[in-house]
Amino acid sequence: MSKIILYDIPSRLSPQAWAPNPWKARYVLNYKRLAYETHWVSYPDIAALWQKLGLSLLENEPNSTLPVISVPSKDGGPPSVIADSFKIALFLDREYPDTPRVLPPNTVALQAAFVQHVLATTFVAHLRPMILQRVLEKLDERGAEYFTRTRQKWYCPEGVSIKELCPPGSEKYKQQMEKLRAGLNTINGFLLSNGQLEDDAMSPLLENYPSSPLTSSPSGYRHWVMGTDGPTFADFCLGGILVWVRTVGGEGLEGPDGKGGNNDLWKNISTWNGGRWARFAKALEEWETIV
């Protein structure tokens, strides 16, 4: 039987995977242990891919993006083509009921709110000005031209280039870093509601459980976003953003501990909130295979 195809955006890095949204789908596929392969599509070729796969192009250019998956039919018919990581997760939960669910029925609305509002406004919005130039530097030539043209229009004030938006070392960059830290403090506060003690004094104790660094603390509290025994889609969305930082923030995928390399973004984030985000990244490592 043919494999599922995951369409992703390439970079000049090795491995190529860097984009946070395709990473959400990759995490889900790996977690469910589904056979798939990655096809790489540069930014300017995505619209043509959508047309080729029979997807309707949307009015706004950013909506015709990746990930997209193509899933072979079980009865020999045409493949199912799904765009958008949230819809992909719902589809895979439905079509492969014997695999772990990432969107349990009683959590769908809450996970959607966490991903579309909490992560978007308290993490991504603060991170974006600092990371756009780094993304640009990692793309192939055609992808970089497309990225510059579109992102400058969407995210930069008139007359300001991506490079000038938030230069590393500038006062604006320092202020943006503080906004990012405040945003992650907010997310940390929400996650503390699950009951875990997550502070500097607790960090050495939690590190004694490397085989399952986030599943449960000695007192039995849960550490995933939804307070569940295993990860859900919300965890993979948060993980996708962390991979984005760990990858394009430096010169390739940084280790979860943030040590070494020249990635100031990940070095900072990995130490905040008692090292929560480094442990979170470590917990997701087993589902970071790129095929």
In short:
The protein has 291 residues and is of the alpha+beta class. It is built from eleven helices and four strands; from the N terminus they run E-H-E-H-E-E-H-H-H-H-H-H-H-H-H.
Descriptive overview:
By secondary structure, the protein is an alpha+beta fold. It folds into 2 domains: 102 residues, Glutaredoxin (3-Layer(aba) Sandwich), CATH 3.40.30; 181 residues, Glutathione S-transferase Yfyf (Class Pi), Chain A, domain 2. Helix content is 49%, strand content 6%. Strands 2-1-3-4 form a 4-stranded mixed beta sheet, with helices on one face. The longest helix has 31 residues. The two termini are 17 Å apart. InterPro entries: Glutathione_S-Trfase_N, GST_UstS-like_C, Thioredoxin-like_sf. This is GST N-terminal domain-containing protein. It comes from Serendipita indica (strain DSM 11827).
